[in-house]
Structures are given as C-alpha cells and as structure tokens.
Amino acid sequence: MESEFVITIDGPAGSGKSTIAKKLADKIGFLYLDTGAMYRSVAYISIEYNRDPVEVASNLDFEILESKNGDKFIANGTDVTSKIRTHEIDDKVSKISSIREVRKHLVKIQRKFAKNKKIVIEGRDTGTVVFPDADLKFYLDASIEIRAKRRYNQKNEKKLTNDSFSLEKIKNKIKKRDNSDKNREWGALKKPDDAYVIDTTSLSKKEVLKEILSYLAEYEY
Ligand code: DC
C-alpha cells in the first residue's frame, strides 16, 4: 500500500493556486485535484439539466484526464472543461458551493480520492476542512489587481470561453466572489493556521514553485 502524503494549496481566485498545484504535482509525481473544478461541475450540471445541486453532488463522478492540450475535466462521463469556466458559472458557483450538503458530499469524495495517495489538492478549504492534518499546507494570495489581470488573460488569451468582459468588470466580479467565499458559514476561504503563506503578486510561477519546493525539501515523501 502506498503511503499517503497530502499537500494542500488554498487561496482566492487568481492567486495562482491551480497553475502552481498542477506544476508542483507534475514535478514531484503526485496526483492533482482541483476542488474548484468539482464545485464548478456541480454548478454547471445542476443549471444545465435543472437538477438539485445536492443530488448532483451526492453522486458526482469526477476525474481529471491529462491531454497534450492541458487537463480535461470529466464530470459524469462528459468533458466539461470549457463549460465550467464561463462567466455564468463564475457568478453562480459561489452560491452553490455555500450549500452545506453540497460541501458535505464533495468533501467526502475528495477524501476518498486522496486515500493512500500522494496528492496535491487545491481549493478554498482543503487545509482547514478537507485535510486539517495534511502533511504540508500552503496559502497563496495576491493583490486584487494582479488576480483580476490573471483571470482576464486566462479567459481572453486562452479563449476558454466566448464571452469576454473588461478587466474592471472581472475585478468587481472577483471581489464579489471573494466576499461570498470568505463569509459563508461552511467551508469558508480561510488561511489555515499552520500554512505557509506566499504572496504571489510580484512572483513568477517559477519563483512560487521554487519557494514551495524549498519547504518540501525538509520532508520525506
Ligand atoms: O478555484 P475556483 O475559482 O475554480 O473555484 C470556484 C468556486 O468554487 C469558488 O468561488 C468557491 C468554490 N470552492 C469552494 O467552495 N471550495 C473549494 N474547496 C474550492 C472551490
């Protein structure tokens, strides 16, 4: 049986956690789990098929497949990669992820996914609620300006969606989502007390990864 080693990375939208978590997992040969993509999948499926989000979360079948064009997110057998990154889902996901029963089901799936594995898991509550005893925890943050810029570039340059918004509008939407992610009753975005905090505002991806690897060097995994 493989021994478990869990690294959690939490932080607000645009802090760089998805990119860094993926790069870190690839570099050290760990599995990678983007929990935000799970909440987004529940939001997408419940809106698209007019289903109860709690029921969708209760039997969500979720996997991440690697492909040469980047990771593909598969929910209930369907490729939802581009469908979960629209502005509509950005707007609705925070409300759906504040439903206690939705969180309960997804947290259970996340724990099962990581059982006896070496994994990098990222989201909002992975170091506080999902894995309070994780081996190593990080909390990434950055200024609102740079986070909005990153999201803007991500959406417009990579053409993840067909709907485009101005930088200012994205900034306001992120502020609104931050507010509801930080203030919900269950699984709120919060820095774990025992996390290493990295401000990524003026750091490149390479520099953030280097910093994380320097902490990791002290561990056997
Ligand atoms: O990281 P992201 O932007 O893809 O996350 C989308 C939303 O999902 C975010 O606004 C809050 C929610 N989320 C959550 O509630 N808990 C997590 N562990 C991860 C994401």
UniProtKB/TrEMBL annotation:
Residues annotated to bind ATP: G11, P12, A13, G14, S15, G16, K17, S18, T19
Protein name stated in the entry: Cytidylate kinase
GO cellular component, one term: cytosol
The UniProt record lists the keyword Transferase: yes
Catalytic function, reaction form: dCMP + ATP = dCDP + ADP; CMP + ATP = CDP + ADP
InterPro entries named among the record's database cross-references: Cytidylate_kin (IPR003136), Cytidylate_kinase_dom (IPR011994), P-loop_NTPase (IPR027417)
Lineage: Bacteria, Candidatus Macinerneyibacteriota, Candidatus Mcinerneyibacteria, Candidatus Mcinerneyibacteriales, Candidatus Mcinerneyibacteriaceae
Keyword Methyltransferase on entry: no
